[in-house]
Amino acid sequence: MTEAAAQHLLLHESEIVKNCIIFPPKINSFGVWENQASPSQIFTYSMPLLEIQILLVFSITYLIYTILKPLGITFFASQMMAGMIMGPAMLGEIDGFDDIVFNQELGLETIDNAAIFSFGIFLFLMGVKMDLKMAFRTKRRATLIGIISFLSPFVVGLIVFEAYKLPHESTGLNLLRITIESLTGFSVIAWLLSELKIINSEIGRLALSSASISTLTSIVLIYAFAISEYWTIVSPSFVVLHVGLMVLFVLFIFLVLRPLMLRIIKETPEGRPVKDVHIALVMILYLGCCVFTAYHNDSALYGAFIFGLAVPDGPPLGSALVEKFECFVNGVFLPLYVTTTTMRVKPNMMFEDSSTLTFCVVFSISTFLAKFISCFVATFWGMMSLKESLAFSLIMCSKGIVELSYFSSFRDNKILSDATFSMLTIGVLVNATIIPVLVKLLYDPVSRKVAASQKRSLMQLKPDSELRILACIHGPEHVLALIDVLDITCPTKESPNIVYALHLIELVGRDSPVFIDHNENQSMGSFENIIDFNRYEQNNQGLVRVNTFTAISPHKLMHEDIYSVALDKQTSFVFLPFHRKWSLDGSIEVENNVIRNLNCNVLDRPPCSVGILVDRMSKPLKSSSYSIGMLFLGGKDDREALTLAKRMARDPRVKLTVIRISSDRGYDNLLDWDTMLDAEILKYIKHNDVIHGHNITYIEQVSKHGPQTANIIRSLVGDYDLIIVGRRYGVDSLQTTGLSEWSEFPELGVMGDILSSTDLDCRAIVLVVQQHYADVYRH
């Protein structure tokens, strides 16, 4: 029998806990055959018991999630529902289930220890991914909303508590409860926005900025109210000593440990991962911080979170820590924490005290409404639409694992009774179930904007109107070829080019996406490729205007940034780089599937006409003359590609050759509408070939099948610096018969796929064009 002081998560009382410990501890069994008369003895060993508990938790959780996912129920809500099912109200009532699985001498202790350990790492990673700088550079609007979203439910909660307050209740503990109910957890908001795939949307960025302010405010107040309880219960001298130690601890982390980690980053070569020994060192420091705060009468979780805030976010160190631990913690052990916490809910106790039930219902609803109304008024007054304001307010009112962890901690510390804990936990479950569904119904930024936008393509432009282009890049290797192509789009003073250069960077090691307008924030992120675009503008004064942006977001949501910029700036054409990178000798150097998936997403739901630029590491285009070949088979995409080629041909340096590949000299069926449109647009080319033959050349080729078309392409590729083709996705014709079966990249279409093939000795730049379609979901 051993005696130890109880280690609570927030407040520590003078309590003695008695534990019976069996020596040697029974960890691994010899299997079910160890005791054939009583096979259930296997559950007296901690490892088999933990394994069966994990199996039960995940089986029930995934069963619920599979059934309810079509209704929009999230995985977190499914975890809580699994806890309710496995708790005393349902499976716990079955004879033998609770006794064997969760009520032995080991009971929930084993799985609890694993869950608490994983929650500590979760808070550490939460601190790593939280960008502290964002809280200090948030705009006035986000700061105001963050403060209002915390203060309004806090004030209403104080009023409710005063109305229902009992004489013996502690004011400090009540303030703690109100603070927890009022906070907006940054990690909860980030998870919800990621789940709904709107983390890099306008309201997503605003919600994250506001939540960071609310989270930091609530952490300070929670600690302050806990200290006030110490002042009353223990002694002022203890509080002074305790606060002094914590201040020294924080200073040590940020003034000693953080510079040490920055040195690790400095010593790591650019583009190389952090050494495993450095990862191990950081985790040892993490455990040391947890031990220090736990030893000095604070929660070990505080030490984990504060140290996480000190770790430099993003690559290489922050992203390496997230990559190594997040999947395991969030995917395996954190669901155990959510489920085992919810298993403590006792619905039968909720109705034993009607006054407690009334208070919890009134308290939860009133604080929710206070936060919802204040956020709605703040955003709607700020010229946000009705649906966006409603969605944003619901997001700010969402609850999740942060609130659940505080409620569990308060129950363990006897700050909350089992009845109050059960009601508040069920409130979190209701919140986590309903809010994601409502937000999804109210807010879909891309679908709304695309549905509202008009068809925007080069063919829709007036002859002398400005050309708005969105140029997307991922790295320096995409810049030179793109600028070369932009340079021959023939901008004039009457018809200038407005270029929006968007540098796309994958978000790793942090939760907060970043969107930088370099025209407004010139000091932020001065990247070399952005400078190249500024130099391009200076070389074309009066003809070209360049606006540069940087978007740092998850790779699965990068296309949302492209949609937003293209639709907000009303661009007519988007340039996307191809995902392959060639070396100077023509061999493939690297393939980036993230870029390929991004291109496919944009092509499937285009904001305007799109062009994929395939740069096979050709030498830079000559500034004196450009030879352009345009392969024309017919159709909307080919007509859009020809329209771009015609604009380029206005430049006296350009020599354009249009190669019309048809199945016969009669151009198929002249009664076909597409064929008639093709014939109409080709009239201009034929006319200019006759009148101004030195600039535009028109050639006709006949092809009866796909292999013949491929041979025609092979015979032409060496004659041009730039080759333009239409994507012609899903269009079948006699000229391309049999080629689609061999197509490696459907996003390039049949012609583009041939031109980008490794079997073809082509060193020209290839541009594959897709016209903007009114039916954006055609694929």
UniProtKB/TrEMBL annotation:
It comes from the Eukaryota. GO terms for cellular component: endomembrane system; membrane. Residues 625-772 form the Cation/H(+) antiporter C-terminal domain. Pfam families: CHX17_2nd, CHX17_C, Na_H_Exchanger. It is a multi-pass membrane protein. The chain crosses the membrane at residues 111-130, 142-163, 175-194, 206-226, 238-257, 277-297, 317-338, 359-383, 419-443. Residues 498-616 form the Cation/H(+) antiporter central domain. One of its GO terms (biological process) is potassium ion transport. Residues 62-439 form the Cation/H+ exchanger transmembrane domain. It is found in: Membrane. Keywords: Ion transport, Membrane, Potassium, Potassium transport, Transmembrane, Transmembrane helix, Transport. GO terms for molecular function: antiporter activity. Belongs to the monovalent cation:proton antiporter 2 (CPA2) transporter (TC 2.A.37) family. CHX (TC 2.A.37.4) subfamily. PANTHER family: CATION/H + ANTIPORTER, CATION_H(+) ANTIPORTER 4. This is Cation/H+ exchanger 4. It comes from Hibiscus trionum (Flower of an hour).
